[in-house]
Amino acid sequence: MISLLGLKLGLLYPLAIAGIPVVLGTLIYAYLRRGRGNKVLVGSTLILKLIKSQSSSRRKFLPPLRFFFELLLMLLLLGAVGGFFIEDNAQRIAILIDNSLSMAAAEPAGAESLIDMARARAADFLRQLPSSARVELFAACPDSRSLSEGFGGANAALALLEEVKAEYCSDSLNAAARKLLAKDDYSKVVVLSDKALHETSDPNLNAKLLVITVQHPKAGSNLMLKSVEVIASPTEGSREIGVDLVSFANRSAQLDLRLEGYTALDKDEPLKLVGARRVSLAPGARETVKFKDQGDIYSAYRATLSPVPASEDLDQLSADNEGYLSLQTTKRRAVVISDLRPEDLGLNLIGWMKFDHVRPEAYAPEVLGTGDLLIFHRFVPATLPEANLLFVAPENSTPLFVLRNGLSNAEITSWNDNHPILNYLNLTLLNLREAKTLESPNAEALIKVGAGNVALAGRQGPYRFAVTGFELFPFEAKRAPTLSILTLNLLKWFLADSKVSQEIVPFQNFPVTTAEKSLVLVSGDRAPTPIVNLNDTTAAVDRPGLIVNANAADTDIRAVNFSDEIESDLRERGLISAAGEGLKGAARNERIKLASKLGVLVLLLLLADLVVTVYQARRISA
Amino acid sequence: MLPDSFTPDFLRRLELVKIRSRRAFLGTRQGGHVSIKRGHGIEFADYRQYELGDNPRHIDWGVYARSDRLYVKKYQEEQDLNIYVVIDASASMFTPRSDRKWERAREIALALGYVALLEQDTVTVSVPGFYNSPAIHGGRAIHQLGKDLLAIEPSEHRDFLKGLKRAVAQMRFPGVAVVISDLLMPGEELREVFNLLRSKNMDTTAIQVLGPQDIEPLPNLESVIAVDSETGSEIAVALSAEAREDYGALLQAHNTALQEFLAGARISYVQALTTQDLSDFMVNNLPSTGLLR
Q1: The CATH number, out of the four listed (3.90.640.90, 2.60.40.3230, 1.10.10.60, 3.40.50.720), of the domain defined by the range A223-323
Q2: pLDDT one-digit tens code per residue, B177-200
Q3: What's A422's DSSP letter?
Q4: For labelling, which of A98, A348, B180, B229 has a CA lying 20 to 30 Å from the CA of A91?
Q5: What does the DSSP 8-state code read for residue A91?
């Protein structure tokens, strides 16, 4: 490899260099030979002989320009055969670290976690990079984000690695990796994860991808506390507290389960033991352990599990060993105004929401009650109430939007993939049998077909509204994934800043009022920590716990839980489709292979030469 | 049979010129040129004393009246002139055919023959290696001569020098010799050719016939292997613009050396380009050598 003008040039097959003298010699010989030309009969060579003896240019071999042109062609061909490449000094590397909850797994518990291993491997990688490499560091969750906020040196990325820690979140690693791969900003995307990553259908993108596996040598094993919920007893009319347990362990396990109640009266020790059980779980078993509800004493509960004995390898992920329940937590409520019942629309499959039904003929503002959302299905009221409004396949225009053309078998041409309603969606797969185009000056276009918009979303005062010009229901979950994800995204978007939100997951923005400026998070064994508001109306927390108002005991208590079986199940992570080259190989500079380009260049030069030759021949003959 | 270029107009123009020799030669027959032989010509040459047997009609009575002696007038006899035309028919005269050097040489030879035969001269045409005509007389013989020359086609390489020597050996009487050739041969050979003619006491004129490719060789070609049409020797040449300039200068130098030699040998020289009009050459260029008047 040689350096020329700051570029490193080389050949994949360096033996091709041996061809240079061969090519040069052959060309000179051929040129001399060709220089002798064809035999032409002349009357007498008497004078020509004298020319030869006086032609110094021929004796000294001062070739004409064409010789150099042909030499260039030969060298280009040699370069193509030898696999000529330019080493890209300034690699632009994106490092995406999976920091979802599963990366907190450690074997034995408390030892080096997967995220520690990922950081170490990333550090190894960064140290091997040339100083000219530019690196941008990403954390996969929540919502794949850049930690370095742009390119920086490898040392800067090394310093930022310490900030990467496992969080209470699920990753969307494939989506995040593909998003990075699709950008031309990065010459290589390095993903460090414990999960399988699917290759893309584009081999060029796959070539940019390097997956670095972080796994413990032994198969994963984990015990999970999935949820804490209120169970109404049909016989006694009383309530029980149910704790759902799942074993992802590789053998039978015994665990101690504790239920603690929250009392706002004792701020120094707000959690009091309510009950404890020892439970045996077979591998793969699911069990619900019930405790008697003491709702008159406690307004919230915390459940924790711990393996017995404290096995080193049975419960590798301790972060999913707790769950919280606020007895004041209510399901979110939506009212569906439709000829069809919510069950007919498949909405009963969405368990985290309560859907009440009002028939269009019975519609009146007073029968709606309070709720997070009104869903108008194929129906538009004469006057619009002040609430969050979702219109599905409306049949008339409203002051919020105007219906335009009806379409059949419309193909979606574009969509606003930056809008949260369209997260994780690939709408090219969606075929709209019937749709109507919509227009609204106050709404943002979500989905477009050739004739116009078919989905809009916007705000009307403090409330949100969205319209789909096509049928969204029935909700069929996995059987219609695109529409189902769109439905769930719509519901989440409506409830994102709902004032009555009670069920919260880490990193989810929840609304706060001015009276709740003193919210604290009661989490685990740590002292209650104040919650820093994002702004005047929203806040977020990064771990499960209970959100309480430190200054008002009677305020709503909101439980923050994180539960994702995919993150907690450490048993089978699948084979990771790591690229063939190892860490060391990946740290090498990017080689920009130019063999095919050289071949094309030679062809173009030959073509140009042919055109010039034909042109000259025509001119001479003319 | 004469070539097509011998139009009636051209023939009429040829009839206006005559062959001239710089010296008087002894002829073989009565002709139109003053001979070195004293006799019954019309041009006075000298007096001599009357001898018995002289024709009394030749006595100059005026001289007798003044000197009282009998003298008779002597006249230079007018005899024919032996014209030897040697045409080079070596391969170089046929190469390239587009230059038509052979055809032009043949036309010049026939034109000279036509002029000579009209003047009752004796013409011998020799194409060394191919053809030797007998001594021919009379204007009608030109047609046979033309037929014979038109029949000559290039064949295998012939040794021009050897053929020329043989032709020169057959020249029994001195006279006017005309060599028509491209004269693109080494200086030694040229000297040998012309010295042979000098040794025969010929009044020699050299006509160098050159074609376009003798002036500018191998147009539109850059690098070639030139094959000599006579020797078959090959030579690789790169005809760049510079080389072409060199060629022109070298050809000029060759011709200059040739002319210097010929001038020293009292041999007239003229160049005939095949691109030039034949009539123009015969009427305007050739008389400048003194061969025609």
Answers
A1: 2.60.40.3230
A2: 999 999 988 888 888 889 988 888
A3: G
A4: A98
A5: -
